[in-house]
Structure formats: structure tokens, C-alpha cells
Amino acid sequence: MLIAAAGLLGGLVLWAVGLHTIQDSRPLTGAWALLPMGVMAGLETLRRTAPRTTVVVGTLTLVADQFTSGSLATVLMFTDIMYAAVLYGTPAAARRIPWTTALVTVAVPIGLVSWIPRTDVLLVGVFTGLISFGPATTGALVRNHRDAAEAARLRAEQTALLAEMDRRQAVLAERARMARELHDMVANHLSAIAIHSTAALSLDDEATTRDALSVIRVNSVEGLAEMRRLIGLLRDNGPDGGPDGGPDGGPDGGPDSGTDGGPDSGTDGGAGNKTGPAAAPTLRALDTLLAQARTNGASSGLGFALDDLRQDNALALPTPVELAAYRIVQESLTNALKHAAPGTVTVRLACTAGALTVRVSSPLGDRPGPRAPGSGAGLIGMRERVALLDGEFEAGPVTTGDGTTIWLVRAELPVAEGSGTA
User: Fold this and answer.
1) Residue 393 pairs with which residues in a beta bridge?
2) Cα–Cα distances in Å, from 381 out to 108, 234, 375, 377, 393?
3) For 417, phi and psi rounded to 5 degrees?
4) pLDDT grade for 125, boundaries at 50, 70 and 90
């Protein structure tokens, strides 16, 4: 509306002072020049909402203006309409109008020269290019810049959205990893504590109670050590491993910040956590793990055996595979302590066809004595660990050849370097 008002007002001023674009005689003189000017000013109000209509009507209005004395305001408003038709029109119109005006700019002087053999008529072609091809080309350039800026903005928004999605997925993956580590590191000790504390409460026997309390204390200390190692990994406060840099990981950095001042496990008053967070466990520690399970499962009539069928059990495996295999065995032994019937729990390791196979079988059936409750998170954690390594996992009851039923956990982990993630 401002452009239309300014164009109309300027045209009226030019007409009032007698400035016209055409000086020779025309069929329509005088106030007739105001009619095309008014129409062009009205078209300016539609330049964005109906660009194709305004450029067609504006072209016809400009042609009609040639039969009057003409007005510079009419010509200037036409150039703005041509510019707006390219800038606000459809993409097809934005491509066609510059080419069309270029052809008109070339065709007009050629036609005039062939009709009127005078060189000065070439100026008409220049004038035609200035009021049509020039504005159309300018509109195309501005439109291309705007489209490029909009595309860049959309790409930036998509990049930010993808980055946020990646961040959320990374946070969820890290939380799941921490949940698996926490469950696998502590559940074994807490299960033993639950079973033996129940036995101590249900059996009125001093020797049984003392044995149960001994197992409870050992598992409490070891569970606390595992928790402190996990906290050290999460805090990552350097080699001291303590929350405030103390030499033994205790709350005040003192020499005896453990639970009772004893020497065991480095968490209750011994040397402490002087070496920082412990390294990831490997399959070499399975003997220790089974020895602990034998101690915890003796009262339930459980025995534990390791059958390592690997040709070279000292062969180094990828760290993620070693950790996953160790945690699967650890969780399987924990589940056996909770639910297995009296008998022998067998852990079997084998390397075949580029994969490490972990197989843990335990007797299935009724068992005497107390049981520790289970939540099912252990099986979920094992399945997730195997999935991260692109392996195969199965767990469930299996009937053997002699008709007995066992609970079998089987995991096949690729051992090729770079397979899967930790």
C-alpha cells in the first residue's frame, strides 16, 4: 500500500509539473496519462498476493500508456511489479519470466530495426531491457539467495535435531550400560547375602549361623569394593580414586576409612583404592569367580565346574568380548545361586568359527532352603550385552539326552576385532 501510494503521489506531481516520458503527439493526451498510472498503482497492492495477474495486467497497462503522454511513475511501478512477479510468484514463473523478458528485449529492437531502418531505435531495446529483463533478473537473484538461506536454515535445524537425538541415544545407552554393570557387579554378592541371612534366621544352629554370617561379611565387603570401583569409574577423579583425592578412596582421605578397619579387599581399612578404578575383568578371573560361587552355594548343595575347551585359553580376546563373557558367566552363577536345584553348575567355554561360545548349565527343579528373589533384569542385561557385539543369545529350560531338565544359558560372541561395541 505504501509503494502504491508513493507511486501514485509521485506520478501526480510529475503530471502536475508537466514531466512526461513521451514528448511527441499521441492519440490520448492530457489527463489520459493518469488512467494507466492509477491502474498500475492499484496493481501494486496485489504484487505479492497475485503476482502472475499483476504482471500480465501491468504489461497491458504499460502498452496502453504508450498511447498517452506517459509517466515515469507508471514505468517505475511496472519494474517493481515485474520484480515482485519473479520474487513472489511460483517457481515455474520465476524460471520463465527472466527468459521471456530476455527474448522480448532482443526481439523488440530487431523488429523495430527491420521496420524503421534507424540505429536510434536500438535505444528502445535498451529501455525494454531496463524495465523488464533487469527487474526480472534481480528478482531471480534475490529469490535464489532467499531459497538458499531457507535451505541452510532447514539443514541447520535438521542437524540440531539429529544431534539432539544422538545425544539422547548416547545418554540412554550409557544409562543402560551403567545399569548392567551395577547389576552384574553387585547382584552376586547381594544374592549370597540374602540367601545366607535367610538361612541364619531360619535355622537355630550356632555353627550354621556363624558360617552364614562369615559368608555375609565376605560378600558385604566384596560388594562394597565393587561399588567403590564403580563409583571411581563414574567419578574419574584420577589415580587416587577417592571423591576428594584421598590416598585410599575414603571420605576423608584417612588411612583407615573402611567399614571396620580390617585388611580385607582394600575397602575396609587395608591399602585402600590406591590404584584407582580397577581394570575390566577378564576370563582369567573365572577360577576366582567360581571359587567364590562354591563358597556361597555350599549350603544349597551346589557345586561349580569350569570346562575350558579353548585350544589356548591364554589367547587375548577383544576387551568387549572378554568383559561380556565374564559378566554373562557372573550373572549365570548368580542366577544359579538363587534358583538352581542341588547339583553341579557347569561353565563351558569354546572358540569355534571365529566366535567365543559361553555355555552355563545348571540343574532345574525344586531346591531346599531359602531363595533370593529375582527381577529378570539379569537376563535382559545379558541379552543386551550380546546384542551390542552382534552375537547370539538364548536362555531357557533344556531337556538333556538322559531325560533331565537343566537351565541353559548360551551366548555366541564374535571375536573379530571391531565387531560390535563395548
Assistant:
1) 411
2) 80, 19, 11, 6, 11
3) -65, 140
4) confident
25 sits in which H/E element: none
Query: How many other C-beta atoms lie within 10 A of the C-beta of residue 177?
Result: 16
Domain-embedded: residue 252? no
Cross-strand partners of 392: 412
Point out which residues pair with 343 in neighbouring strands: 302
CA pair distance 326, 283, nearest whole angstrom:
6
Q: How many domains does the chain have?
A: 2
Residue 107 lies in a domain: yes
For 197, the grid coordinates are 541371612
Whether the model pTM is above 0.70? no
Query: Is pLDDT of 51 > 80?
Result: yes
Give the domain range for residue 377: 281-422
- Closest listed residue to residue 189, CA positions, set 165, 216, 153: 216
Q: Is the confidence at residue 43, as pLDDT, over 50?
A: yes
Provide the 8-state DSSP code for 299.
G
In a domain, 194, yes or no: no
Residue holding cell 539326552? 401
3-state helix/strand/coil string of 340-379 = CCCEEEEEEEEEECCEEEEEEEEECCCCCCCCCCCCCHHH
User: How far, in Å, CA of 31 to CA of 271, rounded?
Assistant: 108
Helix (H, G, I), strand (E, B) or coil at 396: strand
| Cell 552355594 -> residue | 297
**Residues comprising the chain, all counted:** 422
Q: What is the pLDDT of residues 215-264, one digit of tens each?
A: 777 777 777 777 777 777 666 644 444 444 443 444 343 334 333 433 34
Report how far apart, in Å, the C-alpha atoms of 361 and of each of 294, 330, 331, 364 are.
15, 13, 12, 9
Give the span between the Cα atoms of 101 and 415, in whole angstroms.
69
